[in-house]
Amino acid sequence: MSNNAPPPQVYRSKITAYVVICWLIAALGGLMFGYDIGISGGVTSMDDFLRKFFPSVYQRKLHAKENNYCKYDDQLLQLFTSSLYLAALVASFGASKACSVLGRRPTIGLASLFFILAAIISGVAPNKAILIIGRILFGIGVGFGNESVPLFLSEVAPVQHRGAVNVLFQLFITIGVLAANLVNYGVSSIHPHGWRIALGLAGVPALFLFIGSFVIPETPSSLIERGKESEGKKSLQKIRGVDNVESEFEEIKLACEIANQVKFPLKKLFKRSSMPPLIIGVVIQVFQQFTGINAIMFYAPVLFQTVGFKNDASLLSAVITGIVNVVSTFVSIFVVDRLGRRKLLLQASVQMLICMIAVGAILQVHLTTTGSLDKGLAFVVVVLVCLFVMSFAWSWGPMGWLIPSEIFPIETRTAGYACAVSTNMLCTFIIAQAFLSMLCHMRAFIFFFFAAWILVMGLFVFFLLPETKGVPIDAMTDQVWKKHPVWKKFMGNSDRTCYEMT
């Protein structure tokens, strides 16, 4: 089912050095998130870390021949990774309120502060309880950052470049993952505190983001929504690089007037007319996680050890997948505003499905509970994982953040995006907490499990996802939802300005 977007409504703007710097500074929020995604798997495979906090897992690892798939199956070890995302789930709703009341820029600053504190606590953690506290603080930082940064990028980007600008968040996530893999590889030989260095370095991108939060502007939408129209207009002129911004300013102003009539955004969010963006925003986040990508990115070193790589070789293989992740994300930056969101998602669904089925088939046939793959097949597994990561990096990775950040009207934008982010964190928590146990009990069939999800994802995109390329962020209701053959049935015939005030 095709659903082509109307031609872009282009407002006057030019790309200045200042606005590019603002995009890059804000995208550092993705670097924080990506670094933590990448660092967890490497740290949990380090012997010094396991000996100190998870000695039973370390002993099991020494006797891996007992069961190749189950040597890392430990709920507390998984909680080390997953606790962050449970905290981020809860924090995303506080971040939504902060975005509405304080603005996008202060919320970004708060995210960086939580991350800095978490990095310090994690790096010096003397016991398991303090270590988990550090992870929870990381989670609060992730919740605040993942709520505020994509909203900021979508609201400051010119409509014709919104996709590419928002993809910067995912690009910096991939750079963070790669940086974490390189750090893990570099500190794995530093005994006994290499893992402390790896965790503590998470504070570096957070520090840069905190400093940068004093450089970037507040978004025009946030300022105007909070009654600061003159400041909002100045901000719009600054980020557009031109003085004549009247048409775009009036569009934002009208959207904010409508938003201010809605006293209870969360209540409005669950009305029938708000269901299309809410369903899309939430389902996209579920699908992004159930591609299996985070199972691979969290535990890439563990996964490669399972198929027969030694510790250093597995970390190096994770670095390779990290490089593929970064390079492939650039594809999305260059083509997302040309090809649109749907084509990238559909193409990637096919590629990812093939890769998952192939990996599962190889492991099912050739990897026993006590053996390992021969070098040739192990290499094939790495190549297939890289092809999987490649397709995710230009599709479901960036689109998972871009689409929910651009589809909600301003009156429900922060609340709607908070639901999307919290769904992402819940699903990430489930995958992070369950993957090693699933690997133990399902073995190679875990890859077929994710393949089934990918098939469902592709069908959902084909039939239900509208194209949002080139549509002004405050015109989505009229230009997208009211024209889609399925979702228009939810919108009714009433004009957008007619809302219940309660």
From TrEMBL:
For this UniProt entry, the molecular function terms from Gene Ontology, in alphabetical order, are: symporter activity
Q: Which CDD domains match?
A: MFS_STP
Matching entries from InterPro entries are given as: MFS_dom, MFS_STP/MST-like_plant, MFS_sugar_transport-like, MFS_trans_sf, STP/PLT_plant, Sugar/inositol_transpt, Sugar_transporter_CS
Transmembrane ranges, per UniProt, are 15-35, 76-95, 107-126, 132-153, 165-183, 195-216, 278-302, 314-336, 348-367, 379-403, 415-436, 442-465
Where does it sit, as one GO cellular component term?
Answer: membrane
**Any idea which UniProt keywords this protein has?**
Membrane, Sugar transport, Symport, Transmembrane, Transmembrane helix, Transport
Subcellular localization is given as: Membrane
Tell me the ranges covered by the Major facilitator superfamily (MFS) profile domain, including all copies.
22-469
Which Pfam families does this UniProt record tie to the protein? Sugar_tr
Q: Which SUPFAM superfamilies match?
A: MFS general substrate transporter (SSF103473)
Please give, as recorded in its UniProt entry, the membrane topology of this protein. Answer: Multi-pass membrane protein
Q: Which domain of life is it from?
A: Eukaryota
| Family assignment from sequence similarity | Belongs to the major facilitator superfamily. Sugar transporter (TC 2.A.1.1) family.
Against NCBIfam families, the record matches this protein to: SP
Could you identify this protein by its name?
Major facilitator superfamily (MFS) profile domain-containing protein
Q: Which organism is it from?
A: Penstemon smallii
Highest classification ranks of the organism: Eukaryota, Viridiplantae, Streptophyta, Embryophyta, Tracheophyta
